[in-house]
Amino acid sequence: MASQPIAFHLLEEPLKKIVETGTNKNAADIMCPIDKCKCLVIKKGAATLVERDGSKLELPESVLGSNLSEQLKGSTEMQFWRLGNMMDFENVGFSKTVDAVKYLSCADCDVGPIGYHDTKESPSEFLISIRRVRYRF
Ligand SMILES: [Zn+2]
């Protein structure tokens, strides 16, 4: 049986646990942040850790639930899981588009934004905030 997914802020030294040394790939399955939701967003080993401009995500965080919003308060989000192709997601939804930025959400429960896709960026990339998801080891 798979273990229960763990939220980013509950991990000790999260970057050591969720990032594979040497490859910078995700060392755990990336899951929806909502406790009751079992949606798998990105499979282990499919995404790469990158640093990006987190200001594009400074959007309504309230939809993520008060607990997670509280964790994000005052923290700059700069680290993201990057996918180069939408087809590499196991499940993902698009919540809304603001200017040229499409916001990504959970495909099952619609919670979001958990990441974004800037349609003006080339090559195209899809970014999931490492703090807005849970990890299943
Ligand atoms: Zn969900």
How many domains comprise the coordinates?
Answer: 1
| Total helical elements | 2
- Associated small molecules: zinc ion
The CATH superfamily is identified as Metal Binding Protein, Guanine Nucleotide Exchange Factor, Chain A
> What does the average pLDDT come to?
88
Total strands: the figure is 10
What is the top-level CATH class? Mainly Beta
**What structural class do helix, strand and pairing data support?**
mainly beta
N/C terminus separation: 11 Å
**Tertiary shape:** globular
The level of helicity is: under 10%
Question: Could you name the CATH topology?
Answer: Metal Binding Protein, Guanine Nucleotide Exchange Factor, Chain A
Give Rg in angstroms: 14 Å
Query: What is the chain-wise order of helices and strands?
Result: EHEEEHEEEEEE
Descriptive report:
The protein has 137 residues and is mainly beta. It has 2 helices and 10 strands; from the N terminus they run E-H-E-E-E-H-E-E-E-E-E-E. The strands form 2 sheets. The chain has a 6-stranded antiparallel beta sheet, with no helix packed on it. Strands 1-10-2-3 form a 4-stranded antiparallel beta sheet, with no helix packed on it. The longest helix is centred in the middle third of the chain and has 7 residues. The radius of gyration is 14 Å and the shape is globular.
